[in-house]
Amino acid sequence: MPTPLSDIGRVIQLSVAPVFLITGIGSLLSVLSGRLGRTIDRSRVLHALNSNEETVAELTVLSVRAKLIYRAMTLATISALLVSCVIITLFLSAFETFPIGAVIAVLFAAAVIALIGALLLFLREVFLATRALRIHPR
To answer: Which residues in the chain show pLDDT less than 70?
Structure first.
């Protein structure tokens, strides 16, 4: 039996909010990618310099920051994938008769938890970068 067009329209309406969430996660990934690139560039510059105690200390901080960013990017990507699964599940629910609400709720909760983890790691990386920042008046 074909699915009525009104059901598909309702599913599209329900899918709009998750799509905006994916857009926000994409923006977060863009910021994280930029920060990771700058961290890698800085570490390459430091590797080219003569190694001293200060350089080694900064490289250690940069390494920790890069790992935090990498983990945040991983969690953000997982979150976006889970939200995508929510959207697919919403569309499947228009064609299937079995209750799929619990699956949608679990997927969405997992996506939000992954996003929270990504944001916490991002915040930790920002704190670490700010703490390591040294501005000397000339």
So the answer is: 1-5, 134-138
